[in-house]
Amino acid sequence: ATVEAVSGEMSNHDIIHLSCHGIQNMKNPLYSAFALYDGRLELNKLMRLSLKNKELAFLSACQTATGDERLPEEAVHLAAGMLAIGYPSVIATMWSIGDKDAPLIADKFYSNLLGSRGDSESQKAKLNSAYALHEAVKSL
After folding, report:
1. Which tens digits make up the pLDDT trace of 35-82?
2. Do 17 and 58 contact (CB within 8 A), yes or no?
3. In angstroms, rounded to a whole number, what is the distance separating the alpha carbons of residues 55 and 15?
4. Do 90 and 32 belong together in one domain?
5. Which segments constitute the CHAT domain (predicted)?
6. How far apart (Å, rounded) are the C-alpha atoms in residues 34 and 21?
7. 19: nearest Cα among 46, 37, 45
8. Whole-prediction pTM value?
9. Is the same domain home to 105 and 51?
């Protein structure tokens, strides 16, 4: 998962799942980043992308939705950046997540989200990511 490979492939997939370290830069939020194999995929690089018809960004990385508590009205963090570039649904954390808990949440989330896709019209309410995440968190 190199910086170029990830940023280059984002336009080819409706769902992206980043399982890595998240780095929040409070002094300059545009330098907040995902730590990848060969370096940092920074928010300022992500903000240059414009993706169309995307579905979901699952950010399994610590503090991806943590902003600066001194500027609570301003949401400049990795999750906000993913929303800005075209992902209408973003799952992120405001805190650190344990290495044992993150895969459990992801597994339950995808089971809930994808497991109900073949269900009838009455189950459409359960198809959204908020419901899937809610059910996954309850499992902890």
Report:
1. 999 999 999 999 898 898 899 999 988 778 776 666 655 667 899 989
2. yes
3. 6
4. yes
5. 1-136
6. 6
7. 37
8. 0.84
9. no
